[in-house]
Design a protein that fits this description.
The chain contains ten helices and eleven strands. With 302 residues, the chain is α/β, with parallel strands linked by helices.
Length: 302
């Protein structure tokens, strides 16, 4: 039996659908019920998780926990610490005590940093640059520590920005901005980045549920190649039907634009280079991305 936390969220809903399709017995453990989850999947709503939530009674006879639940869209240090570290540590302890065999934690590539001239590998120096990434790194360390003194095994997966149907966060804000069909000042953006389609992430998670070589390891995941940020914006514009005209402005104008008008876009993230090397997962697990970024972006709008 598999328990998925955050099953009502963007990634969780895609994961549960795929696991169910492959005849896996799945329980969705979330803060709220979701109408998008099939009726043959048991849903448990716990309301808001905290450091005192008793997960134990929901983990009896469970083989694997896939932990997706967490806070993603907040810059508040205390809220990130509570939701992404304290709650995770509590869940891991309960899982170990309940006899769970495998705990799969979805972390973030942000634990390695938010800008780099070279691709992040599993051996890269850890340098989280924001409260979200810092809390995820603390959770990784807590998971490893508890597994070291119990019979439970861990798998850690670090994706970059995940996209797909029902996406949330910064990329959703970009799509919303493009939908205005106004000319956009992103032609001069020189950065490139790795993305991860939700289809590719879900597939790697599914591999890690049963693969013996996944145990006790950390894997980076992405679409397997980088995409120029300007090219990404063009694809979003084309496939969403917005068909914007793009023009050049210096980077400092973009930063000013963030300050005075579109703070939600987080322009610094657009200008940064965030590249990921997923070759370790390919070597160790024989995993390969199921789709490239262009096809993944297209599928968001079909």
């Amino acid at each position: 039996m598999i328990v998925v936390t955050g099953g009502s969220g963007f990634i969780g809903s895609h994961l549960i659908k795929q696991l169910s399709k492959n005849s896996k017995e799945v329980i969705s453990l979330s803060s709220r019920f979701s109408n998008s989850i099939s009726d043959d999947v048991k849903q448990i709503s716990l309301g808001k998780f905290d450091g005192y939530t008793d997960f134990s009674k929901f983990l009896e006879n469970v083989d694997t926990v896939i932990h997706l639940a967490g806070l993603t869209n907040s810059s508040d240090k205390n809220q990130n610490h509570l939701n992404n570290y304290i709650v995770t540590e509590r869940l891991v302890k309960c899982a170990a005590e309940a006899g769970v065999k495998r705990f799969i934690f979805i972390s973030t590539i942000g634990v390695c940093g938010n800008n780099s001239s070279t691709a992040f590998t599993e051996q890269s120096k850890l340098d989280p640059a924001d409260h979200y990434s810092q809390s995820k790194l603390l959770a990784e360390e807590a998971l490893k520590g508890i597994c070291d003194v119990s019979d439970m095994e861990y798998v850690i997966i670090r994706p970059p920005l995940v996209y797909g149907k029902g996406l949330q966060g910064n990329l959703k804000n970009v799509v919303k901005l493009l939908s205005s069909k106004l000319p956009m000042p992103f032609k001069g953006v020189k950065s490139s980045r790795s993305l991860c389609s939700v289809k590719n992430l879900v597939n790697l998670i599914e591999v890690c549920v049963s693969h013996p070589k996944a145990l006790g390891k950390t894997f980076h995941v992405c679409d397997g190649h980088d995409i120029a940020t300007y090219e990404l914006f063009k694809l979003l514009s084309i496939y969403s039907g917005s068909k914007n005209i793009f023009f050049y402005v210096p980077d400092f104008i973009l930063y000013l634009l963030e300050i005075i008008s579109v703070r939600k876009l987080q322009v610094s993230k657009i200008l940064n280079y965030v590249r990921v090397d997923c070759s370790y997962a390919q070597k160790e697990l024989g995993w390969r991305p199921l789709e490239n970024t262009k096809d993944g972006i297209r599928s968001m709008f079909t």
